[in-house]
Amino acid sequence: MLLAGSSVADIIKKSGITISNKLAISAVRKISGTVLTKINQAVGFRLATKFGTKGVVNLGKLVLVAGAGVGAIFDDTATKAIARMAKKTFTDDGIDLGNGDVISKTNTNQ
Q1: What are the phi and psi torsion angles at 104 (to 5°)?
Q2: Is 36 domain-assigned?
Q3: Which residue would you say has higher pLDDT here, 42 or 3?
Q4: For residue 95, which phi and psi values (nearest 5 degrees)?
C-alpha cells in the first residue's frame, strides 16, 4: 500500500524530465552565437563552441544535467512522501491501518 504511489511518482518524474528537456532544448536553439560566446567567456572554460550543431550539441549536454536535476527533485519528493507515510503507518504500537485500527506488535495469543 505504501509503495502504490511509487509508480505514479515514476510517471510524473519521467513526464517532468521530458518536459524540462524539451523546454531546455527549445531555449538552447534560440540562443544566438553572440550569447553563446558571452556564456563561454563568463563561465571561463569552453562550455559552448561556435553557434551551430556543435554549440547546440554541447549545450544539449547541459540539458541532460538539467533533466537529472529534475529527476533528483522528484526522487527526493517521492522518497520523503513514502517516509512520511511509513512513519504514520508503522508506529510504536504496531501497524496503523488508518481507520483507527492498529495491528498490535505484541502477540496476544501467549
Answers
A1: -70, 145
A2: no
A3: 42
A4: -100, 120
Q: Is residue 82 part of a domain?
A: yes
Alpha-carbon distance of 27 to 25, in angstroms, equals 5
Q: Average pLDDT of the chain? A: 71
Per the structure, the count of domains in the chain is 1
Q: What is the DSSP string of 11-28?
A: HHHHHHHHHHHHHHHHHH
| Element spanning 66, H or E | helix 53-89
pLDDT in tens, 48-91: 444 444 555 556 666 667 777 777 888 888 889 888 888 888 88
Structural domain range at position 88: 56-109
Distance CA 9, CA 3 (A): 10
What pTM was computed for the model?
A: 0.44
Domain-located, residue 104: yes
